[in-house]
From TrEMBL, chain A:
Domain ABC transporter: 6-258
Classification via SUPFAM superfamilies: P-loop containing nucleoside triphosphate hydrolases
Lineage: Bacteria, Bacillati, Bacillota, Bacilli, Lactobacillales
Protein name, per record: Branched-chain amino acid ABC transporter, ATP-binding protein
Gene3D superfamilies: P-loop containing nucleotide triphosphate hydrolases
GO molecular function: ATP binding; ATP hydrolysis activity; L-isoleucine transmembrane transporter activity; L-phenylalanine transmembrane transporter activity; L-valine transmembrane transporter activity
Listed GO biological process terms: D-alanine transmembrane transport; L-alanine transport; L-isoleucine import across plasma membrane; L-valine import across plasma membrane
Keyword Cell division: no
Record GO cellular component, one term: plasma membrane
From TrEMBL, chain B:
PANTHER family: HIGH-AFFINITY BRANCHED-CHAIN AMINO ACID TRANSPORT PROTEIN BRAE, HIGH-AFFINITY BRANCHED-CHAIN AMINO ACID TRANSPORT SYSTEM PERMEASE
Domain of life according to the entry: Bacteria
Transmembrane stretches, start-end: 12-33, 39-62, 92-112, 157-176, 206-227, 239-268, 280-302
Pfam families: BPD_transp_2 (PF02653)
Keyword Cell membrane appears in the UniProt entry: yes
Protein name stated in the entry: Branched-chain amino acid ABC superfamily ATP binding cassette transporter, permease
A molecular function GO annotation: branched-chain amino acid transmembrane transporter activity
Higher taxonomy: Bacteria, Bacillati, Bacillota, Bacilli, Lactobacillales
Entry's localization field: Cell membrane
Keywords noted in UniProt: Cell membrane, Membrane, Transmembrane, Transmembrane helix
InterPro entries named among the record's database cross-references: ABC_transp_permease, LivM-like
Membrane topology category: Multi-pass membrane protein
From TrEMBL, chain C:
UniProt xrefs under InterPro entries: ABC_transp_permease, BCAA_transport_permease
GO MF assignments: L-isoleucine transmembrane transporter activity; L-leucine transmembrane transporter activity; L-phenylalanine transmembrane transporter activity; L-valine transmembrane transporter activity
Membrane topology: Multi-pass membrane protein
Protein name as annotated: Branched-chain amino acid abc transporter, permease protein
Stored CDD domains: TM_PBP1_LivH_like
Organism of derivation: Levilactobacillus acidifarinae DSM 19394 = JCM 15949
Amino acid sequence: MSSVLLDARSLVKNFGGLTAVANVSVHFDQNELVGLIGPNGAGKTTLFNLLTGETPVSSGSISLATDRGVQSLNGRSPAQIAQAGISRTFQNIRLFKELTVLDNVRIAMTNHYREGFLTSILRLPKYYRTEREMTAAAQRLLAIFDLTAVADQPAKNLPYGTQRRLEIVRALATKPKLLFLDEPAAGMNPEETADLTRLIRQIQHDFHITVVLIEHDMSLVMDVCERLYVLEHGGLLATGTPAEIQRDPAVIKAYLGGD
Amino acid sequence: MRFSSRVKSNLAWLGVMVSGFVIIDGLEVARVINPFIENMLVTIGINVILAVGLNLIIGFAGQFSLGHAGFMAIGAYATGIMTQTMSTPLGFFLSMGVGMVLAMVAAVIVGIPTLRLRGDYLAIATMGAAEIIRILINNLKITNGAAGLFNIPALVSWATVYVLMCVTTLVTVNFIHSRGGRAVMAVREDELAAGAMGINTTRWKLAAFVFGAATAAIGGSLHAAYIQTIAPDDFNIMASIAILIIVVLGGVGSITGTFVAAIVLSVLDTVLQNFGTIRMIIYSLALILIMIFKPTGLLGSWEFSFKRVFSRREVTSHE
Amino acid sequence: MQTFGQQLINGLSLGSIYALLALGYTMVYGIIKLINFAHGDIYMLGAFWGYYSINYFHFNFWLALFSAMVVCAIIGVVIEYFAYRPLRHSARITALITAIGVSFLLENGMSYLVGANARSFPQAIRVVTYHWLGLRVSNIQLLILGTACALMILLELIIKRTKMGKAMRAVSVDPEAAQLVGINLNQTISFTFALGSAMAGAAGVLIGLYYNSIDPLMGMTPGIKAFVAAVIGGIGSVPGASLGGFIIGLLETAVQAVGLSAYKDAVVYFVLIVILLVLPAGIFGKRTREKV
């Protein structure tokens, strides 16, 4: 029996008069692969943004199991939440475009290395040591995901599918316990999607982390996810294993419409 | 014995800095450099210091500051006031240190609230903050109000400016190529994504801003001690804009470009001295034309690197 | 109470000049996101046109005002065509430096052509001072206030009621989408510059009449203040610019009235910073949130 990693209770988000997320409770367990599905405008990305601190919640509580016990994430900034162990990718790729692939990854490691200001500007021996260690760690990650060859390229020069892959690598470089992927297969051809499926499995297997993904590609979701949450109109419609969800009459109705 | 390209490039830069010094010194001794040219060289040096710091803020951290002259004023007045009673080189460096600390404190006070603003809003807020600093100086007794300070002891030679220019540039470039420099550039590239990767964006923006303010204070101190006369109007909006022009003309995000632009503009200015009143007309036309035909500045974001030169050579020699 | 009323009138007159100038900044910024640094110098050119047209062509005030607006509109369009249009797809900071270059060019060009000295503006209208409830109001002040308000209402009508105004609003929201629905981008931007510059030209003639002294560098400080006004009001918003102009005019007069004239600009900038901290997009500005 795995223990709960992230527990979100009764989340509500109002934008003016519009309720984007209405009383949603979700939990993600250690080393679990969870899918978040639902029609467009169901509040999936908003839910991600609430959980990563990008948008503050109107009400509800979020807590994360960390090395130092269970911590509340309410009111924390995205940076603090990232440091607590949650990382993410974005629906519209948000890489550091002008910087190299290597730098994109090294930046995500910033908080795992300490270096004093004087060490940096005077290039004390510790500077060279930190640089060597960061670069080696980044190169290791890039090697795992077949990005070594493009390490010195600016991120903007990569093909679309590779950019998506790099964004996942960058997120992993923060050493998260929980990784949110926002539509990782969007805009990919079937071949790229198949690669991605392998990649997600590999991440969960090699890094022992929890992966939560928003996805419209049902074959991908049904293939990799162990458990699904279905959102509709900002509310939670159903939850269960892929097989259960596929049989759920409410879900079928929401997706196929009609009475 | 074979050196790595890192050691070679460090030695090459040291060589460039030392030979630059030796050449200028030789020309001074040979009396090729008259006071007029020396003045030009010192202006270039001070402008490089000012513009490198501003380029860190604008080009690398992506924060549009229009208030650089305000921090420069703090350094200049610290030196102008303190060296009246401590007229020694030690006194100068002490005053420069005090100026830097004061400028950094001012940058924290200005930066914490305003760095939340974006783009042009930040520009206008920093411009306002710099103007507030200037108006305070204009009305204080210790700064001698609008008349300013004169007869500031001449404690600075071209050599002091040269050495401080090298040190400031070196320190800035080292910062850019460190863990902190990359964090700062991540904020420029995508603040939201940087935050999601655990980068404390406010802290790194402020770090770059405070760093830039400290270098501006160095430039101000040197200006005060070399020119020997300062007045609040030397540090108005137009002074901030003059530094901005060097940064943009050289290429936002290129330290090499900042050097090139500072030299080009100073030489242009010196040559145009002979043209009398139409000098500023030619200057402004040149500015417009360069921007239209070279919108990314003279060098874009290109950076000269010995390390690249050497590692390229290593690669070719292996082949 | 009396001095308060008096200062209110002085502040409103000054404010209406800032407001006229701020309109140009806000419209240009709204449409091409450029801080048109040369805008204050267009106002200077307007003042000089007024000076020459009254002295040498013997125009009356209204004709001078109208012709200054036309001349400045043309100058604004020409500047946009030659200096800003080639940079429309460049980084915004590049266009800003070009605008600064244009500003230097206009200031120094005029200093070269007419000399840098200040000269007195012809008295096109005889000053009459009315005494009313213990207040002194000159006909010039009323004229400035009246003309400025009339022009602002006219501008609001153009933007809200005409086809061109609709095109301007569309371009400021989304230039690409506007082009897709058949709006001529270049024409719309030129029109915006013409309108904004005409307002600046009018402000120049009015200020000449009010302060009675003009010089080639007169546009610098009011230009920056007017931009501050536009930012306070919410840059891109036409009513915001008017409001911002009046706020700055009143603020300056009030600070002067309490005997702190040395700190008048500092107070303006301080208020600017405070307003931006509370309302990061100005009073009427729309806060746009980045979509993730």
